[in-house]
Amino acid sequence: MDRPTLYITRLLPQPVLEAIPKDYRILAGTTDHSPTADELRRGFAEADAVICTLSDAIDASLLSEATRLKVIANYAVGYNNIDVPAATQRGVIVTNTPDVLTDATADLTWALLLGVARRLVEGDRWLRRGGWPGWSPTQLLGADISGKTLGIIGMGRIGQAVAKRASGFQMRVIYTGRHTVASPPDVTWVHQPLDAVLAQSDFLSLHVPLNTATHHLIGARELGLMKPTAFLINTSRGAVIDESALIAALETKSIGGAALDVYAQEPHVPTALTSLSNVVLLPHLGSATLETRVRMGLICLRNIAAVLEGRPAPNQVNRGVPQR
Ligand code: GLV
Ligand code: GLV
User: Fold this and answer.
1) Which of 95, 152, 216, 275 is least enclosed by beta carbons within 10 angstroms?
2) Do residues 269 and 123 both lie within one domain?
3) Apex CA 312: angle with CA 308 and CA 315, to 5°?
């Protein structure tokens, strides 16, 4: 095969760029920005392999012009940004980056949980504004975490990593998901129907992939089942929640608060959310540690090398790709 062309839609951390095999021809922008539709089209038209991100929408029309393309390595565990059936139909292998970001994402989920329960961001903002008059018995009172009930929706790798961390807080863990999972020694994770998890949780955390079955999984009805003191945490995908229903629930205080890392229309965040004090808002940082982002890049490269060399890709998400 000629020198393979690798199109990378975004600038990746330096150690990843340095690990790209020297015989690849690299197509990349010189500055980091979300590629324009034209840039994406040109990149896909020339590439044998692509590394793209969760904010790049890879649709059938883009794929129809990608005549040389053999593999799309999505720089994310979630791959809802890619029309996978269209890729499969064209014989393009799609891969993701599971496992390496599980701990980073579970850690950030806990940062959000702790942050919203203990009013961390509100406190920081208040102090910086210079308004803090000194300690008071009734100031910025939050909610206890220890001993409470943590509800997890989607008990995959990340859901389980979040649940494991709850042991240190002596929390009761309940979850809903397609499968029951084994609890670690000394704790019991209880599998329950969705509505029971919604009704009993003090903290509810979402860890499902976004697909047609999970789109707006949490809407007005589900929010209505939650305790008025409960906090909703989302580090999965924004569209798993009906954002307007969430805003209504927060405005009417039918739930205690929310801590979000993801939004339905990123990077757009509704002003109704940014103007509420009982929410913590992060700019999609789930996997954002240097170590994790380097590991994600190396996995992308490993998958690409496998496909280009005719070996099975370790993290292929589409089965049954026809040979070409
Ligand atoms: C991040 O959101 C990912 O899916 O990796
Ligand atoms: C993703 O890695 C998950 O299974 O939660």
Assistant:
1) 275
2) yes
3) 100
